[in-house]
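Hi support team,

I submitted a single chain yesterday and got back a structure, but I'm not sure I'm reading the token output correctly. Could someone confirm the output below corresponds to the sequence I sent? I've pasted both exactly as they appear in my results page.

Thanks,
R.
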Amino acid sequence: MPNRTTTMTRMRDHWRGQFRAMASPCEVLLRTNDAQQAEAALSAVAAEAWRIEDKFSRYRTNNVVAAINDSNGATVAVDDETANLIDFATALHELSEGRFDISSGVLRRAWQFDGSDRLPDEQTVADILSCVGWNKVLWQRPDLTLQPGMQIDFGGIGKEYAVDRAAALAADLVTHCLINFGGDLATGGASDASPAWQVGVETPDSAGRRADRLIRLSRGGLATSGDARRFLLKDGKRYSHILNPLTGWPIEQAPRSVTVAADTCTQAGMLATLAMLQGPEAESFLEAQSVQYWCRRS
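Hi R., thanks for writing in. Yes, this is the structure output for that exact sequence:
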């Protein structure tokens, strides 16, 4: 069982809560003069993050994702929350013309993005690809039927969903807050809060040690997608962990990172991920969405 404890620190003009969830450091910044309110908000945020992790992590053996992935072709009826995430993933699959696909997680059997130069065998990738493709899935809410050997993975949308849920819960308890789960962020509470939260966007390859951009965020969400930590490097060529489920291989000519600001963290994460999946057309895609974004290619 992972360590599930929280810590709270009093800063100059806010409280800072910390814990771990979803394999990420999680931070909660809370503006209130009431220590009990701050503790209650931190507890609510951490509990919600852990609840979502327990329910939707592919690493758990007794949750809804495990039931689906172990179904071996049988139909599984899911609850409303799970159905909502599946509906969202289905919409993203259509919007991306198949590039976003929650059934593509099985490709991790071939790919280990550990910074080494070990590329998988082409036949291995091709064999696994037969178990990928949302178009092969029968989804008629609330019933989901995967073909034998197929699996789903909510990793591409689950953390952003958790951030927005946590921000809404904290906003009921404090004046203004900033939720940060491993670099996916959302504000909660008064939209005219002052001063704005200052968010640093790290430089690729700095492993979180150096920020080259400072963003002032008073409302909405912020999300970043990139290959700073998960990649392969072979003969001078960098292979991003963002895979094209249509080929089973990394997206070609994708930016090093894309950061998007939007009304919610879920929306920001969706746009950042879809932009990365566009490869060389990432900037054109984001321009067409009329959102604020920051894109790095080196």
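A quick pointer for reading it: Residues 180 and 267 are 15 Å apart (CA to CA). Let us know if anything else looks off.

Best,
Support desk
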